Queue: 4 jobs
Job 1
Amino acid sequence: MAVSGNELGLVKVGLLGCGTVGSGVVQILRDRAELIARRTGCDIRVRKIAVRDLADPRYVEVPDEMVTTRVEDVLGDPELQVVVELIGGIEPARSFVMDAISRGKHVVTANKALMSTYGGEILEAAEQAGMDVLYEASVGGAIPIMHPLKEGLAGNSISRILGVINGTTNYILTRMAEEDMAFRAALSEAQRLGYAEANPENDVEGRDAAAKIAIMASAAFNSRVHLEDVYTEGISRVTPADIAYARELGYAIKLLAIASDDESGISVRVHPTMIPLKHALASVNDVFNAIFVEADAAGDLMFYGRGAGSLPAASAVVGDVIAIARNLRAGGREVGCTCFATKRIKSMNETVCRYYVLLDVPDRPGVLAQIASVFGNNQVSIKSVIQHGGGTEARIMLVTHRVTEESMMAAIHSLMTLPVISSIANVIRVEDEGD
Ligand SMILES: NC(=O)c1ccc[n+]([C@@H]2O[C@H](COP(=O)([O-])OP(=O)(O)OC[C@H]3O[C@@H](n4cnc5c(N)ncnc54)[C@H](OP(=O)(O)O)[C@@H]3O)[C@@H](O)[C@H]2O)c1
């Protein structure tokens, strides 16, 4: 778009969806129009908004004539240069995004389900058509992370990303830790406060975090990682006792999304994890998110902020719209797909870490020796043991040295057949430095 002197470059935007995030986008672009224009030289205007039901309540005031239930009114409008997809889910969002690209529109989306499943296909179509597809809000809400991974850190080799990237589970774990609350009670409180959905499965079972780490891993390691590649385990088995024992051992329990890259391939997983209390991620509490990046030149970095909410997510969406608007005014493109390599995705069995194991056993001589022998037979070596209780029953907490998941799971299966074990209360992976 050619602009001379003080003339503002007009950029016309269409929204698909005007719910939590969409209304935040309308609000920011409207309330900060002057500031954005002064900063960018662009007059960014929302011109059309497609929704599912005109009768649904809007959290922001929009002129009636701007809102439609016909998605074609947005996709088929030749004047609109940017389409912002804020519907969520795979279909029809995927078809709408592909359609927008094929009609020569740049796309911004906040859709993690879509980008973690069809990101490769969408970015390839965008490349072919010469369009930009930006998706900063799909990971970490307000936190700028996709832009840093693809641009600011492009001179680095990134070896590992650790993320607390699901606000719902982080809120639940924080309440469990601070108020000794059981998982169910903390979940109910999160639902009452609007931090968890009526059907919380996607968050609690780790799938939301899995989608986000797949998106980040693809950008960080230059090789496509899909949602289905991510080993995923949720937090529903974590108890307040695990959290208290973890603290005694010097750890916090977080639902961690972990992606690492080395010469043997990419490892990508989401599960409850014990991390040292002194690690920066251990103090990320409540609904906050944080992403810890280990890069060879920059060193360790942490990106922290609000992972969800109308204005936080809209902030990231608007940042992407502004980047496209700047390009429309000045020429140029954003960084597209950076997955130029095809790296092997390692199986979970190859993961190497420490493990915490909590066992209920009868309190009598010889029990510990039998447990130690099972671990030894499976090449698992024990780093520390703490025993609680006494009388007839005792609880044994063990932390192992670093071992493969395969050996550890073999040891756990053998323990299950050991008559002296009353129950294996929990097994939690420990991310720690050292052997
Ligand atoms: N909420 C957050 O904090 C957050 C944070 C980061 C990323 N995201 C992502 O942002 C996206 C939007 O989330 P949200 O929380 O804003 O969702 P939402 O509140 O449920 O809003 C969805 C919007 O899409 C519209 N819609 C649904 N199906 C449609 C269709 N077939 N055609 C046209 N419009 C349709 C709905 O219309 P009606 O209003 O008429 O029902 C509604 O306006 C999702 O991909 C989500 O994962 C959300």
Note: The chain has three domains: 9-141+310-330, 146-306, 348-430.
Job 2
Amino acid sequence: MLKLDKVDVYYGAIQALRGVSIKVDEGKVVSLIGANGAGKTTTLKTVIGLLKPKKGKVIYKGENIAHLSSHKRVKMGISIVPEGRRIFSRLTVLENLMIGAYTREDKGIKDDLNFVMDLFPILRERENQLAGTLSGGEQQMLAIARALMGRPELLLMDEPSLGLAPNIVIEVYKTIKEINKRGVTILLVEQNVNMAQRVSSYMYVLENGIVNISGTPQNVVSLDEIKKAYLGG
Ligand SMILES: Nc1ncnc2c1ncn2[C@@H]1O[C@H](COP(=O)(O)OP(=O)(O)O)[C@@H](O)[C@H]1O
Ligand SMILES: [Mg+2]
């Protein structure tokens, strides 16, 4: 469904991605793990179109979309749950959700509101509450629900566990599994390798803008260097 082919991305003179190639098959959860500053967010921004590669291809459903606007990509079925959630604190839960549907012109918005509120009942309860008053976990749920309002086929998730208590992280991961079960392909970015490995069918490890290691979760987490760097020994 998605393929990055030898992608180079720069911020001015600084190269952030070096020949990154990854593949996400339809229906799967694939994760991209790496330390702070490795280039994970840069990779997702390149997929959604907020950054353009200097070299390489971004192939989505067989088409090179590297030159397309972000808006077009959203219309083609790609959504992002950004790092740090980025919800609008001074808007209500419902208003935040409607923003997620802004590219839509069809009449399915009401159905999708029902769909995400069934998935996250707390959002129905808090529909008219200001988003800034939600807990961290609830805000993460809202950010995920907002992305789902774009009715994505491919969902990009940038460190959904960041800053959340362990029991809330488990809740968030339950919903990731559920969303995937409902047919949404997921590219998951994480530093929490322990959680990512539980839901992924394949993992890529990004270090200083380069993918050197990839494989099934079992294979990747059994490597000494991964255990040391991400799993506490
Ligand atoms: N707006 C920016 N301008 C310049 N350099 C940036 C910018 N954003 C990120 N970088 C640099 O690009 C590299 C990758 O960053 P990022 O993709 O955010 O990493 P990660 O998400 O894995 O923590 C880092 O060295 C970071 O300092
Ligand atoms: Mg990041």
Note: The beta strands are 2-11, 14-24, 29-33, 55-60, 63-64, 78-81, 154-158, 185-190, 202-207, 210-215.
Job 3
Amino acid sequence: MRALVIDESAEFSVSVREVTARALDPTDVLVRVEYSGVNFKDALVAQAKSRVRRQPVLVGGVDAAGVVTESTHADLPVGARVAVHGGVVGVARDGGFAEFIYASPTNVSPLPESISTRDAMVIGTAGFTAMQSVLALEDHGIAVGARVLVTGATGGVGSQSLTYLAARGYAPVASTGSLDEAPWLRARGAVDVIARAEVADKPDRVLATETWDGAIDCVGGDTLHQILRSLRYGAAVAASGLVASADLTTNVYPFITRGVALLGVDSVEVGAPTRARVWRALGEVAPSINYEDLIDHTTPLETLFEAIESVRAGHHRGRVLVDLGAN
Ligand SMILES: NC(=O)c1ccc[n+]([C@@H]2O[C@H](COP(=O)([O-])OP(=O)(O)OC[C@H]3O[C@@H](n4cnc5c(N)ncnc54)[C@H](OP(=O)(O)O)[C@@H]3O)[C@@H](O)[C@H]2O)c1
């Protein structure tokens, strides 16, 4: 089969090659991949001396969607349409930038009827994380109609957070470094669009004005600090990312005087009940969403590395879809 292989056994290289799909365990499920998608994490994996990749030679791709072709599991029968993501997929074992993928059943989710394999990869880990973040805020008690700040809004997690918040009755406000994308962000559901710098307020004070009923942050660093100090009493931020920085320097005042909560969102090791719940929620909103509008561009394997580089550089809006040519 053809696959995008990252090879650092000697000199670093990334190329499309013929390889053989390998099962690591007899219980692994074989999936014929129809679509994949490019995540920020794929850019971290596909670089020399990557601290994320855990194999010197690896088929990249933390996401895949397709049809089961070999399985010993009654709940994942041959012919089932599935998404593959999470765990060590595309990091320590071969990933979804290939015509076939063997995966542990814990990383294979049956797709709801309302989601095609193509739409599943427009959603991808980014959209899964976005819906997981929305559900985390809902579990915290954020009321319908709440004004929720979304950072990194033109990115994969950000743009789908806007879409799902709007679909579930919230009023999302987009924070972006690309203000010229404001019309696109409004079309995704943003009621307001602000510049990145506007997230900071009253820098000389310990706490900022109580502004947000909730927030979804995939940026981290000072942005997350600014969000914490501007959440309303009892509000929460769902934090999943670190595109700006993995460091967080803040103080305890938002927590001890405003009772705010920092909700960590992890899509990688999350258990089966949550995976099923998130895909169910994605299935519920899917009929109201045109996933084609969330695609930046579609690439075959041959131009995939260029697409990964464009995601690394932030030269994209929404999702980069990978078409494995199975249809
Ligand atoms: N916890 C998890 O399970 C999980 C799952 C998926 C993703 N993630 C993480 O979430 C983050 C976003 O992933 P993604 O796939 O959505 O990435 P992405 O598509 O590259 O989007 C990131 C967005 O952040 C903004 N941005 C980029 N550089 C920035 C900077 N230096 N300062 C402030 N904003 C910046 C840009 O949006 P604007 O131009 O609109 O500001 C960019 O489009 C990554 O850190 C990823 O590793 C975590």
Note: The mean pLDDT is 96.
Job 4
Amino acid sequence: MSNQNYIIEMLELKDNNIAFEENFYYKEKIKNVTHKVFEGYLSYQPLCCSKCGVVFDEKFEKHGFITSNIKIPDVAGFKSILRLHKQRYLCKHCNKAFTLKSNICDFGCFISNNTKWKIANDLRQKRSEKDIAIANNVSPNTVERIMDSYYNTVKIYKNYLPKVLSFDDFKSVKSADGAMSFHLCNSETGQTIDIVEDRL
Ligand SMILES: [Zn+2]
């Protein structure tokens, strides 16, 4: 396996269009926190112009790079980023420039998909969103957005009550805060409104 492939495999970046040159790795302080920085170049021949849709031909010109810092999962306990220089092309059919896309993160997003998968996996554990946000170097809002996109969560509307409300306490799981948990449901539909860990 080439060094190039080792890096892609090690960082779980499933995009063979990213090239790592010599001195691709260094440490850098970002907001006073030491980060591991991996620097790569995204370049390939696009199939078509992403602005006007014309198929690639000789009227396409390379048009410099645009750089994004993409959060990737921690490496050996250090916050880590992929500093990706993405090739830009100028399409002379529509005279507009566009940036190549990579499948390691969504367009316009600076959090890698494997970071999102890790957060989605962390959300399966009994940990607060805030702790998961700190551990993954993202904001709690990001964690919430990932939870909404990966899991079908039941939204609790606390400013609304059904016409008939039923409630009961019950023994839930050992890890619950109280001895008994508290269940509220809509009597007419049987739908759970909320489960509170402690009946107090
Ligand atoms: Zn075009």
Note: The pocket of zinc ion is lined by residues 49, 51-52, 54, 91, 93-94, 96 (CB under 6 Å).
